[in-house]
Amino acid sequence: MLESIILRLFTPIIGPACIIYPNDHLSGILPDDHSLGSNDCPCLLNYDARSDCQIMKRMLYMLIGPKGAGKTHIGALVNQHTDITFLRVEPIWLSLQPGEDGWKKVELNIDRLFETHEKVMIESLGAGEGFGGFHASLAKKYPIKMIRVFADPDVCLSRVRNRTSIDHIAVSDDKVMEYNQIAAGVTYDWSLEIDNNGPAPEAEIIQAIRNLDHTVGSS
C-alpha cells in the first residue's frame, strides 16, 4: 500500500468487452443528431470530424492544489515517465497581452495539444473567478480526472519563497496564504489524492498516476 498517496478509482459501467461510462460523459462529444445504435462502437466514444465513431482515448488530468503543493513538479515527473503530456499553465498567464482572456488562451493551448496527444495534464488552483466556466467548457469536449495535490500551509509557503519566479506568477506571502486558503477549501470528485508534504516519493507518484491512467487505457 502506498503510504503517501491515497488512490481512489471510479467504478465504470461494464459493457461487453469494454468499459462504458455514464451518458453524461458523452454530452458535448457526440453531435446532437447522433444516437448510439447496435452498429456503433461498443466502447466509450469520442466524436471527431474525421470519424463518426472512434474509441475514446483522450483524457484530461487536472492537478488541483495550493501554490507550493508541488503540482508543477508532479506534472514534470508525469511528462517524463508516462505518455501523459504536461502543460504548464502559469507561463501562459505570464505571456498574456492586454485584452487577452487567460482562461480562453489556456483552453486553446489544451485543444492544440489534443490534436497530437491523447492524454494531457494541467495544473490549477481549482478556484477563483473563471475556473468554473473553464472547467465546464473543457468537460464538454474531454473526460476529466481531478487529482488533488496537497501539503500543509507552512510547507507550501516555504516552497513558494524558495522557487524561481521566472515561470511562476510573483505573489506576496500574504497573497499566497490567501489564495491557498481558498484552494484548500475546494472539493471535487477526486480520482486521486496526493499527500505531498514529504514530498511524496517520486516512484510512488508515478505508479499512482499509471494506475489511474490504466483505468482509462484498459477501457
Describe what this molecule looks like in 3D.
The chain is α/β, with parallel strands linked by helices and 219 residues long. The chain is 35% helix and 16% strand. It folds into 2 domains: 48 residues, no CATH class; 160 residues, Rossmann fold (3-Layer(aba) Sandwich), CATH 3.40.50. The chain is built from 7 helices and 8 strands; from the N terminus they run ββββαβααβαβααβα. About 23% of the residues have low confidence.
Topology:
Layout: E1 5-7, E2 13-15, E3 18-20, E4 59-64, H1 71-81, E5 85-87, H2 90-94, H3 102-114, E6 119-124, H4 131-139, E7 144-150, H5 153-162, H6 173-184, E8 192-195, H7 202-217
Parallel strand pairs: 4-6, 4-7, 5-6, 7-8
Antiparallel strand pairs: 1-8, 2-3
CATH hierarchy class name of the largest domain? Alpha Beta
- Quote the distance from N terminus to C terminus: 24 Å
CATH topology of the largest domain: Rossmann fold
Please give the number of β-strands.
8
Helix percent reads: 25-40%
The CATH architecture designation of the largest domain is 3-Layer(aba) Sandwich
| Count of domain modules | 2
